[in-house]
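Before the break, one more example. Copy the sequence into your notebook; we will annotate it together after we see the structure.
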Amino acid sequence: MIMSREDFNYSSILVTYIMTKTLISVPPITTAFQISKMMEQGEIGAIIVKENNAPIGIVTDRDFAI
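Here is what the structure looks like once it is written out:
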């Protein structure tokens, strides 16, 4: 049986079980167009922005929503 989001009890689930473990990152010089294409082609919802191998921000698909 497949459970819907409404049926799922999120109050007892640890984030480690639902998080994405494969992280996609880009340098801060990446353009918004490049990131939007990466998201579209890879069905990616969030991309970490890193500088000197440290995260400095995140861009999500909601940042492109109008």
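The domain at 20-64 is CATH 3.10.580.10 (CBS-domain). The CA atoms of residues 30 and 51 lie 11 Å apart. Try to locate both features in your own notes.
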